[in-house]
Amino acid sequence: MATNRTLYTAADSIAQSRGLPGPMASLSSTSGRNPASSHISKTYRQASTLFLTRRLPEALSTVLPLVTPTPPAEGTSESTEPAPVVRASRSSRIKVWSLYLTVLNAIVELGSDEGKDAFGAQEWKAICHKVREGEVWEEVVRNGYHGVEGDVDAEVVINLATLLLAHAKTQTLNQKRLENYLAASRTPNLDSIPSDRFSESPRRYRSPRRGAPSGADTPRDLNARVKLLELYTLHVLPRNGEWEYAREFISVSPVLDDERRDAFLQALDTLREETEAAERREEEERRKREEAIRRDIEEARRLRAENEARERKRIEEERARREAAEAQAKASASVADFGVDGSTTPPRRRGTPAAAGSRSPASSRGLARSKGPVARRAGSGNTVATPTLMSRATTVLRNLRVLVDEVASAFRTNPRKKIRERMARAIGVAWAKVKATAGMGTKVSYI
Question: What is the pLDDT of residues 126-137, one digit of tens each?
Answer without folding.
Answer: 999 999 999 999
